[in-house]
Amino acid sequence: MTSERISQQAFFGVSALLFAASAAATIAGCASMSSMGDMPMPGGWTMSMTWMRMPGQAWPGAAISFLGMWVAMMAAMMLPSLVPMLSRYRQAVSRTSETRLARLTALVAMGYFFVWTVLGMVVFVLGVALATMETELPALARSVPFAVGVVVLVAGALQFTKWKAHHLACCREAPTCCARLPAGVSAALRHGLQLGLHCSYCCAGPTMILFVTGVMNLRAMAVVTAAITIERLAPAGERIAQAIGAIIVAAGLLLIALAARIG
After folding, report:
1. Diameter over CA atoms, the chain
2. Which DSSP string do the residues of 97-159 spell out, in sequence order?
3. What are phi and psi of 47, to 5 degrees?
């Protein structure tokens, strides 16, 4: 067995372990949130305790706790589609004189998840701000079911845009789409950051859906993970993304109709 094959097997083995650990941490975090229950809100919906501080907890502690759950969740959701991209990167780098394959791959992954961590900070601030307004303004809270339908509708419409197609192509074709082949430590980190940006842009619609349907909702996470993975790895990814978009648009219209009926 060649050293290259051993290295590749070790890469997939470590990736599998990371996926299993992040999935277990995500399930545990969701179970912990579910045990606290949700807060009934005007308009017939419930607010997740994700956006609330625990008794005696300061906001910095709440933010750190959320980011820990967010990073674990993103690792579980993104690794199925990230691992093939990292594998292609490793194959491209192995054809050069570079020998620090494991270290460079780790740096690409670090850059990638750094982007998602920053996005998690933004999501937390936005989620807390909206939750505060919804608890203080009953009229705003009553409009949430309708707003959720609109957000889902917009998320579905994004699947049909050239913007989505461009970033999806970059995720499917990496590393060739992002730049010249990254070689060296700093270039590998930049490549990871670029890949993370393309991925976060490509996942804008699914992330919006996850935000409004419940960040720690296991069923929503499973559906979003499947959609992201299929459009990245299956043949004719753009057509699949549009088919997913059609389903999301239909779901958004249904949610709007239900909200209007209840209202």
Report:
1. 67
2. S---HHHHHHHHHHHHHHHHHHHHHHHHHHHHHHHHHHHH-HHHHHTHHHHHHHHHHHHHHHT
3. -100, 135
d(CA 72, CA 68): 6
The mean pLDDT of the chain is: 88
Q: Which of 160, 144, 155 is nearest to 207 (CA)?
A: 155
Which residues are CB-neighbours of 243 under 8 A, at least 6 positions away? none
My answer on whether omega of the bond before 175 falls inside 30° of 0, hence cis, is yes
Domain that holds residue 110: 3-262
Task: Give residue-wise pLDDT tens across range 147-183.
Answer: 999 999 999 999 999 999 999 998 888 665 554 555 6
Compute, in degrees rounded to 10, the torsion defined by CA atoms 16, 19, 22, 23. -110
Per the listing, tokens 């996005």 go with: 119
Q: For 51, which DSSP code? A: G
Segment 198-252, tens digit of pLDDT: 999 999 999 999 998 888 888 889 999 999 999 999 998 899 999 999 999 999 9
Total count of domains within the chain: 1
In tens, the pLDDT along 12-55 reads 999 999 999 999 999 998 888 777 777 888 878 888 888 887 77
CB atoms within 10 A of CB 191: 25
**Structure-token pair, residue 15:** 């990736």
Residue 138 corresponds to which tokens in the numbers above? 């009953």
